[in-house]
Amino acid sequence: MEDNINNHQEATFGISLLAIASIVFIMFMGVMYLKTISIQTCLIVSITLLCIISSYFLKYSFNELMDIMAKSIKNGAFGLWFFIAIGGIISSYMMSGTVPAIIYYGVKLINPKIFLPACLLLSSITAISTGTSWGTVGTIGVALIGIGQGMGIPLPIIAAAIVSGATFGDKMSPISDTPNLASMASGSELIPTIKAMMTTITPAFIISFFIFAILGLKYSDTDIDYRIIEETKTVLENNFNLNPIVLLPIFILLILTIKKFPSLPGMAIAISLGIAISIIFQNESFTKCIEALNSGFNIETGSDYVDPILNRGGLQNMLGTFSIAFLGISMGGLLNECGYLKAIFTRLLRKIKGIESLSIVVMISSIMSTALLSEAYLSYILNGAIYKKEFDRRGVSRVILARLISEGGLMPAPLMPWTTFGAFCIATLGISGIEFAPYAFLNYLSPIISLLMTYMGIGIVWNKNKEREYRNDQ
């Protein structure tokens, strides 16, 4: 195979532009315009087209292209297994009464006027503590959806508050993969990287908090349908044992995550504990509990409102989004390994003059990479490798590069339903990123504020004695 590799043609700017423009067109027409073609179908068509272009113009064989996709799937295997584990977590949390109890007490204790900002704060604190946005969305996020819907608050706004908080916490947590991988990819140190991130995301968080607080005022006591709240509480009381012990699985998982216990074994422990509580307190049989891990939790309470909130989880219900992640990672592998993205971004570097335009290019290429590779982590690695020498040449600290690639790579990821994070949100929260994007204020305010502050000369970290040289050159 080594001999064949040496015969490959290098991806030119024109061919790369053709490949990427074709993918953008296919995704736009299928997902955004026609809205009748599934994301999976769009991804399959895009992968097929990429293989044809790579074979005809770059001289890759079919087997080599399959090997590239297989390598990408291997590298993304942990995330794919995470999908399966989360299906089990949600199912066991429903069976055990963990999520129903959180919904029940949440509806009783939280005032609807403060629910949305409280939702943002709670998701942020959970993600900072655990270091995972996915885990936050898949656990406390599911419960918050139930509480908010029980109050009559629209699902898109609730989901946006959860995702905004989860991405903020993930980005700011020193135990999260996001700042660690962003600093590693850019060659910067972790703590200075987090400090640089705080400079731009803090004002975005404050603005988002007040927007959610204002939105929450719309759902005052006079606007709430208390019949829905009472129905929710009554149905949960009649169908579940809601004693505090049923909350144990979620607290055990949070403790294990904070202690940096391996994620998948920790989730297996939480699932096992959930099954035990289901048998002891909810009078479920062992065989029903095991089958629910595959088919999902199912209950018929007689309430058309509560049943859809509770009937979630299981492997089978995750397969649709699993397939999106599988295909997205495969497509990302082709774009990365065949050199399409590198050809585009390297060409853009020739047009850059100042740090301001460099920041825009890094931000745009990070967003494009996440959209095309379907995975924020791959975006970090690619853009860190491409731009870090350019930052050194201009005398700008690499912590700024780490900040930019995390803002452009992570923040828009849940808003794109074909990315792994976007697909995960569909599976857990029951809503596409396209639907809640108008309310995900933090996720687009963070990149915008970052670029504005760079243009104003605020928050730029320079290497020693380089700022004066840069100002003199301008």
Give a verbal description of the structure.
There is one protein chain. The N and C termini lie far apart (50 Å). Residues 1-5 have low confidence and may be disordered. Helices cover 76% and strands 0% of the residues. It contains 26 helices and no strands. It has 474 residues and is an all-alpha fold. Helix 20 (355-373) crosses helix 22 (398-409). The radius of gyration is 23 Å and the shape is globular. The longest helix has 28 residues, at 190-217.
List keywords for this structure.
single chain, 474 residues, mainly alpha, 0% strand, globular, disordered N terminus
Summarize the entry for a quick read.
By secondary structure, this protein is an all-alpha fold.
Low-confidence stretches: 1-5
Q: Determine the N-to-C terminus distance.
A: 50 Å
Q: What's the oligomerization state? A: single chain
Q: Assign an overall shape.
A: globular
Element string (H = helix, E = strand): HHHHHHHHHHHHHHHHHHHHHHHHHH
Overall pLDDT confidence: 85
- Coarse structural class: mainly alpha
The biggest sheet, with number of strands, parallel, antiparallel or mixed sense and barrel status, is: none
Helical segment count: 26
Helix content percent band: over 70%
Secondary structure: number of strands? 0
Radius of gyration over all CA atoms, rounded: 23 Å
| Strand content bin | under 5%
